[in-house]
Amino acid sequence: MGLLTLKLLRDLRKAKWQCAAIIFVTGLGVALFYGTMLSYQTQRASYELSYRRLLFADIWISVRRAPRSALIQLRTVPGVTAVEGRLAEMVEVEQEPPRRPRAIGRLISIPRGREPDVNRFRVLAGKDPVGASRREIWLERAFAEAGDYRVGDRIYPRFRGRRVAFRVAGIVSSPEYIYPVMGSVFSLPMPGLFGAMFVPEETLAPLLGLSGQITEVTLVTAPGHAARVAVEVHRRLKAYGPEEPVLRAEQASNKLLQSDLEGNKPFLIVMPGLFLGSAALAVGLMLARWVQAQRGIIGFLRASGFSSRSILLHYLGAGLAIGATGGAIGLLLGKLIGLWLGSAYERIIQTPFTAPQERPDIALAAFALAILACLIGAWLPARTAARIVPAEAMRGDTPSQPGALARIRLPLYLSIALRNLLRRPLRTLGTASGVASAVMLMIIAGTFNDSMRMSIAESMEDFQNYDITVAFVPERSESIVRTIARWPGVVRAEPTLDIPVRARHQDRARDTLVMGMVRNSRLRGVRDRDRRPVRLRPRYAYYGSVLADRLRSEPNDRIRIDYPQNVHGRSATALLRTGDLLRLMVALPIYMDLDEVRWLFARRLWMPPDAVSGAVLATEPAYQREVIDRLNRTDGVGLTMTRADLTRQIDEVTAFANTFIAFMYLLGVIMAFSVVYTVTDVVLWERTRELATLRTLGFGMGSVLRLVTVENLLLGLLGAALALYPAFLLARFLLEGANTEGFTMAMVTTPSSYAGSVLGTLLAVLAAQWPGLRRIRRLDLADAIRLRE
What we know:
Layout: H1 3-14, H2 16-53, E1 59-67, H3 71-74, E2 80-86, E3 88-94, E4 102-110, E5 122-126, E6 136-140, H4 141-146, E7 154-159, E8 162-163, E9 166-173, E10 194-200, H5 201-208, E11 213-221, H6 226-236, E12 246-247, H7 252-293, H8 295-303, H9 308-348, H10 360-386, H11 390-394, H12 412-423, H13 425-462, E13 468-477, H14 479-485, E14 490-505, E15 508-517, E16 540-541, H15 545-551, E17 558-562, E18 573-578, E19 590-593, H16 594-602, E20 611-619, H17 624-632, E21 637-642, H18 643-686, H19 688-696, H20 701-738, H21 751-768, H22 770-777, H23 781-786
């Protein structure tokens, strides 16, 4: 073993706790990169595996009705690899106690005696659908779990006002409902209120009056052919009233899943980058102290024949050792983080098949990043050491000359602290930058927490003043709402009319939902981005910034909205002006005046002139249970949902986000402690002689503690100040990436989040100085004073 190697091992052992702190920060950076990337790749691979094994469709086209023979001509379209026709219908579903009395089910037919050629499902419990008997039904997993269904239970879909009993024959997982939302314009899964249900075609068709018919065509295409095939298939189905094709990218569940994955991408880089950047700073600061303390040794080594290249590699070796150790530990931690994130996500979104990823390429990249970060941090001190000339090294340090600060009358503790900070400004700035990284991480966590809570509070309390939401299946006359308004305990009832549409602006189009509200509503409100109430004007469409970005529209532009199933005799199209942009948590809906929606759509779509698709009710608290029970016994009521139901659903969806935010806070505190401990310990070692001299001059340990504390607090405050604006920019970038069409948040950072982030960092700073101060307390003062350095 060479002399320089022995010296390196001795130096590392002497600074073992400083090295351990840097290794820990490096390991956390690697763990976050490897763990989050592993979780991300596992999610993607699980979706792709489920889609591939269950033949997930590339195209969906709904039709009014078409003979099954229409599929023959579709199989000849170039690029089509599989075609399936099926029946699909939304119906009311009655359930036995203690479940909710009513829900909405999407009944989907299963072909006779075979598996579907497209959109198969995985049976999780019960029998295989092939060879099913009459009156058997298979429930999608999320709905079955929410209702605690078991094989053999009964469920009662309603057909033309008549309920029909079905036996639950199995529980299945479908690639179409991995994220179980009712449609493309819904952002929250509601498994207790809505579920997909699969019924043998020979049973479902007579109940719908569609024997020998289909209402939906699904297709799998060769890669890259979906858009062209969709146009051709839509043309060939022209006689059967086809709706606009839905491509896989726009399918409700898949779109939300992919949007969620895309929203996570910025975190995969930013969070590990903060830790590895802090590790690089800490390595640089520690090695700078080594080089300063070892100038005489370096001069002796150079005079003894060691080349500048050997000295350079010697100090780079310290960075390499720290990076390699931190990288190895980080890979082990990252594996655990990946498993935790994966299992937490899988509890929320259960894919039909899972594909855990090992990804040695990602592990190698993470390990290389750890080494690279520490080598970058070690480069400047190592280069400084390599450039030291023996003759200069033997002279020792040149005493610093009093500067302008020495002539300013300041309290002693503050004067000494400022002198030490300004004496080596680069080291001070480097330490403050490490502290700033921790503050930034905590501010980002606080911003996400504040933005999420504010958006939910605005939606639930400022914009929604009703207690119960009611949905009718199908649309009804407004007379049903007037009847409900007269019930005991109902304070106010307002009708709503929701119409699925495709919004177009220039060459951009988006499927969304027009939501008709009564003029001057007292139960629902919309606000602009400055939170001012907006009055809905006729011939105007109002929506949020996310839809505006998708359409590339500005206020007062002209947009076109079409009913998707625009066929002869049943079509609706309107040209509208865009109003002020709204502040919305759910990004896509278009809000319009109810009377305007009826005039544009109701009569043209064969609805009653005063059509309603739902209502919102304000009730007296004592009567709410009675009103809900009565609604559940009313024909045409598809579902009821209380404010408590919605709050509970939001809490379930945001539970993981809250855990992740708390995790970010914790990581920020750990980073602050580790970085400040490393630098504080370096400084205290460097100032051992100075502090020992002060103690011999009569300064008690309390005075030394105050001196060091003032200096470190100033350093922490400087780091916090440096972090504020970059944290704002970074939080905005991450928040914009995390916002999706299903859920969007306005950026909010409360003063308490700023204060909490700074306070948490300062507490970490105070905790980090204690190990070094304990060592100073135990010093032999005579020996310490005789030290040259």
